[in-house]
Amino acid sequence: MPRWTLAFGFLLACLTAKAVEVRTLGSDLFVNEVRIHAFVASEKATAEQRCQAAASVLKGLKPGAVLSKSKAGTSYRLLMDKAPVMTVTAQDAKAARTSAASLADTLVKRLNEAANLPPLQLSQKQLILPPDKSAAVKLVGSLAGQAKVTASVPGIVQVRRSVGEMTVVPAQVGETQIKIQAEGQQVTLAVSVRPYAFDPRTVVTTQVVGDPTAENVVSGAVATALQTHPDRMPKAQVWAKVLNSGRLMIGQAKTVRAKVHAVGQNLYPFDGEVSVKVQNIGAGTSNEDQLWYSNEPEDLLTTGRLYCAKLAPGMSARLLYHHRNQARWPVVVRYLVANPTTEPAVLTVSLGEGKPDHNPTRAGYVAGEEFFAKWMSRSAEVVMVPPQSVIPITVRRLGRGETFSGLASLALRSGSGEGLYVLGDCVLPQTLGQEWARPQAVTGAWHAFPPQNFNAARIDFSEIHTEVYPGPLKEERLDYEVGGRFAYMRIGDDPLIDLSKQRALEGNFGVTYDIQGTLRNPTPAPVEVELLFEASAGYGSGLFVLNGELVKLGLIPPKKEIVLASIKLPAGAEKALRIQTIPLSGANYPVTLILRPTGIELATKIER
Question: What is the Cα–Cα distance from 354 to 444, expressed in whole angstroms?
Fold first, then answer.
C-alpha cells in the first residue's frame, strides 16, 4: 500500500475521532480518566484556576495530536499544535520534587499517552480475590467516565466507581464477569472470589500430655492442629512454622503463635500468623501394655503387609519397626492408624525415628535418641482419628540398601469402642497419590497428612499379625558392695515370650529395662566406683537414663568398654542407683553392665 494512502487514513481518523475526555477535580487534571497533574498556585492564579485553564485548552485534544515543550526562561511551556496548554514553573517542580525540565517531559509523556488511549481500557482482564479484601482496577479511556458496569452473576461482588478506576468489593464466594459498556464499546473483567486456603478466623485448639510436655511435642501438636484442622479446605496444603513453643506443665495452657502458608486449587493463598491454644491434659504412659514388634521381614524383597494389630480402648502399645530395603527398586514403608468405627477416637502418639540410613545401627540409634527425649517426660501428642478414617504414623521412602527404624508409643484414650487398627505395609512409590509425598519428609507423618477415608486409603484388615509381647518392662536389680565381687548384668538376655507362646524376643529390642541398685562402701576409706557398658555381642549402641540424666553412648565397636558414670562413695556410705534403658534396633544384644572400683585398665571414658 502506498505511503500517501496510510498517511491519508491516519489523518482522516484524527479528523473524525471523538475528542478526548478532560475533567478537573479541584486542582487535579484528568485526561481520559488518567490523572495528569496536580497544580499549585502561582502569583497570578489559584491552583484550581490554573487547572481549569489547562483543561479548557485540552478539550480540543484529539487522538493523534502531539504535545511538546518549549523553554521559557526558568519555566517550560507545554504546547498542543504550537498552542500553549500550561506552564511548568519552578514552584510546580518543587511540589513534585523534581526539576522543571523533568516535570515538563513527564507531563508531555502522560498527555500523549492519555490522548491516544482506546475508548475503554482496563489495567487487567482477570481478578482473583479472597472473601474479605477488595481491589482497585484501572479503567481509563475517552468513554470510561460514562460507561455502565454490569455483572453476569449478581451478588458476587459490588463495584464502586471513581475517577480512573473501579473498586471491586467481594460479597460472596463465586465467579462473575464484569462488563463495562459505552457507545458500542465493551471490555470485560473476569472476577473470581475464592475462599482462603486457610481461614485466619478459624479457632484452633489442641492437647498434649507430658510431665512436663517436651517442647518439640508442643511444636508438633501445633503443626498437626493447623495442618489437619477439620475446618480446613479439603484441597488445601498447609505449612506451619511454630514461632514460640516451650514446655507445658500438667494442667497448663498456652497460646502458641505459628506462621502459616496455605495454598490449594481454586483457593486463595494465605500467609500470616495464627494462634493455637495448647493444653497439657496430663501425663502419658511410660510402661505400655504391649510391645508390637514389626521386624519380619527385616530385609524387604517385595511389597506387602508388614504388620497389623488392634489397639483396644484404654490400651497402650509400644510399636517397634525396623526394615531394610533389599529390593531392586525404591519402596515406601508406611504405618497407619485406622478407625473403622462410626465414632471419633482420641489417640496419644509419641514417636522417635530418623531418616532412612545405610547403617542399620545408626538408624536404630537415631530413632531411640528421639524417642528417649519424649519418653523421659512421658510426652505425647493428642491426635484425633475421625470415624471411618486413616491417619499415618510414618511414611518413608527407602532407597536400595537403606534401613528405616522407629519407636512409637500409642494409647487409645477415648472413643472407638471397637478399637483402632495399626497397620504397616510396603508399597511402590508410583502406586501412591501425590498427597503422600509431603508426609515422607517429616517425622510424624500425621503432621502433613489430613485424615483420609477408607475408600481413598483402600485399607484391608484381613490379616492380624501375631508378634505381640505383653508387658514390655523388665525390672531388675544391680547391687555392688566395695570389697566384694564385681557386679554384672546382661541386658537383652531372658527374652520375652509373645502372646501366642510361640516366639521369643531375642535381644529384647524395644523393651524397657528399669534397674534399681544400691552401692555400699563398708570400708573406712572413700572409694570411687564406675559403671561400665560393654558391647558384648558385637557392633552396638546405647542410650541410658542414670538417676534421671540421659547418657548417650552413640555407636560402639564390638567388645568396647565405656564408663557410663563414676560415683564417689565416702567411707561407710550407701547410695541408690537407678538405670533405665531400651535395647535399640540395629544394635547387637545382649550387652553387659559392670560395677567395679575405678582404675581398672581398658575402660574408655565418654564425655558427659
Answer: 10
